[in-house]
C-alpha cells in the first residue's frame, strides 16, 4: 500500500476537507479494505476501490497520515 495523497509535507488549509488516497494491491488475491489513520486514530475504513477517504475540518497542527491495507 502507498498513501498517494496528500503529498508528503503537504499543507492543508484549516477548515477544509482533505482527500486521502491510497494505492493498494494484493499479488495473490484482493484487498479487502483500506484504513486511513491520523496518528493512531482511524478516521476511515474503505471496503472497495477507489481507496479514498475525506478528512473533514483538520485543526491546525502537524500530523502523520498513514494507510493500512487488509487482504482477503
Give a short summary of the structure.
This protein has no helices and six strands. The protein has 72 residues and is mainly β.
What features would you describe in this structure?
The protein has 72 residues and is mostly beta strands. 0% of the residues lie in helices and 53% in strands. It contains no helices and six strands. It has strands at 2-5, 17-23, 31-38, 41-46, 51-56, 65-71. It has a three-stranded antiparallel beta sheet, with no helix packed on it. It has a three-stranded antiparallel beta sheet with strand order 4-3-6, with no helix packed on it. The radius of gyration is 12 Å and the shape is elongated. The model has no long low-confidence stretch (mean pLDDT 94).
The average pLDDT value, as a whole number, equals 94
Q: Identify the strand order in the major beta sheet.
A: 1-2-5
- Helix count from the secondary structure assignment: 0
Shape: elongated
Cα radius of gyration in angstroms: 12 Å
DSSP helix fraction: under 10%
Amount of beta strand = over 45%
Secondary-structure map with pairings?
Elements: E1 2-5, E2 17-23, E3 31-38, E4 41-46, E5 51-56, E6 65-71
Antiparallel strand pairs: 1-2, 2-5, 3-4, 3-6
Q: What structural keywords apply?
A:
elongated; mainly beta; 72 residues; 3-stranded antiparallel β-sheet; 0% helix
Amino acid at each position: 500500500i502507498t498513501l498517494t495523497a496528500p503529498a508528503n509535507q503537504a499543507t492543508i488549509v484549516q477548515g477544509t476537507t482533505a482527500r486521502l488516497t491510497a494505492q493498494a494491491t494484493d499479488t495473490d488475491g484482493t484487498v479487502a479494505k483500506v484504513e486511513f489513520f491520523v496518528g493512531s486514530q482511524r478516521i476511515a475504513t474503505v471496503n472497495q476501490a477507489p481507496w479514498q477517504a475525506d478528512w473533514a475540518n483538520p485543526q491546525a497542527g502537524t500530523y502523520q497520515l498513514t494507510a493500512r491495507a487488509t487482504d482477503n
